[in-house]
Amino acid sequence: MKQNGYGPISGSAIFDGIIGQKKIIMAANTRITTVAKGIFRAAKDTDSAVFIELARSECDLKGGYTGLTPKDFAEKINKAAKDAQFDAWALHADHITIKKGDPTELEQTRQLIDAQVAAGYTSFAIDASHLFNFEGKNVREELEQNIQVTTGLAHYIKSRMNGKDFGLEVEVGEIGRKDGEGLILTTPGEAVEFISALHGNGVYPHVLAIANGSTHGHIYDDAGNIVEQLSIDISQTKAVAKALRDNNLPVGIAQHGITGTPRELINQHFPKGDIIKGNVGTFWQDVVFNTLKVYEPALYNDIQAWTLEKYRDANPGKKDRQIIDGNCKFAIKEFFRELYAVDEDTEQAIQAMAYAESLVFFRAFSSYGSASLVRNAIMKNNTK
Ligand SMILES: [Zn+2]
């Protein structure tokens, strides 16, 4: 692979570079991209490879809820990488979600992928996990539509990338879905069936996102207070990884929904190397909003007021605090101009906070040194 200054490298180069290592690579959803420079500086100082990503809901052809199209997002992140002079990162399309799988939705999905490829994305997550057939008589039948849609889109990405390497993530088991008894978890058998079927179709993902007890964003107690997330089922995650290994299916696990999980727990108990990609999203939005509380109180108050006004009726019985916390992400597009025009002091504080928090994530994920591993693997590949 050719290194092109500080532009994104292929997601596959990052996954290939850390094979066999007990490391998790952070994937940061930078909904307000101001944090990216701080993240890149910390990545540089700790020699940590990193993914920067946004999901389809956050960033699409109409701007998603962050107000960013794939092109806008790529430009902002490329600039941040150049400013920080950091090279070991990939630009990832998180949750390219397909909810129905009908022709219209698939066509719109291909248009989104076209825009992502044109913007220089180097890694993609196809999420057709919603297409679960509850009437299926066996695992294969339950997963069949997910397999078909994932296969079709993976081949489409490959053709659009036109021979260039890219990272590929797929998803089995919708993250955060509950039944009467709590969160539904992906079983080892489902993961094996899903990946085997994709291999049979000529699709070889690097990472698999599973439902293992995490939830996107914050979780709350009955009084609406944010509480720590201790619900990730670590033994189930290890069992899924082991089943994949035992069946000669070389694919790592992508852990979604890390925001609420204490980092000491990640550091000491996450199966690093089984989990190889760790998605951190809402956390970075918190970094921005917590800084605004002090540095830009008028703007922060406007954001709170707008969010409450817009979402109070739809959330009867919920405390204001929880309504604001759960819906302030939708204010990002509304206050786009203001959020990207804050004072230099504010920007500096946001980036310093992002820097420090990234250090702690990189340490908890044991990703120190991963950037050099990735660079060496790329060089070795080039001289073959
Ligand atoms: Zn996710």
What can you see in these coordinates?
- There is one protein chain.
- The protein is α/β, with parallel strands linked by helices.
- 48% of the residues lie in helices and 14% in strands.
- The protein has helices at 11-17, 35-46, 70-84, 103-118, 139-161, 188-200, 234-246, 263-269, 282-295, 297-311, 320-327, 331-334, 336-339, 344-364, 370-382, and strands at residues 25-29, 50-55, 89-97, 123-127, 167-172, 178-179, 182-183, 207-210, 219-220, 226-227, 252-255, 275-280.
- Strands 1-2-3-4-5-8-11-12 form an eight-stranded parallel beta barrel, surrounded by seven helices.
- Strand 1 (25-29), helix 2 and strand 2 form a beta-alpha-beta unit.
- Helix 2 (35-46) crosses helix 14, helix 5 (139-161) packs across helix 6 (188-200) and helix 9 packs antiparallel against helix 14.
- The mean pLDDT is 95.
- The chain binds zinc ion.
- Residues 95, 175, 216, 256, 279 line the site of zinc ion (ZN).
- Helical run tally: 15
CA-to-CA gap between the ends? 11 Å
Q: What hetero molecules are bound to the protein chains?
A: zinc ion
Structural domains: how many: 1
Relevant CATH superfamily? Aldolase class I
The CATH class name reads Alpha Beta
Low-confidence stretches: none
CATH architecture: Alpha-Beta Barrel
Structural class: alpha/beta
Order of helices and strands: HEHEHEHEHEEEHEEEHEHEHHHHHHH
Percentage of β-strand residues: 5-15%
Give, in spatial order, the strands making up the sheet with the most strands.
1-2-3-4-5-8-11-12
Stated plainly, the CATH topology is called TIM Barrel
Mind telling me the C-alpha Rg?
20 Å
Q: How many strand elements?
A: 12
| Largest sheet, strands/sense/barrel | 8 strands, parallel, barrel
Helix content: 40-55%
Shape estimate: globular
Average pLDDT reading: 95
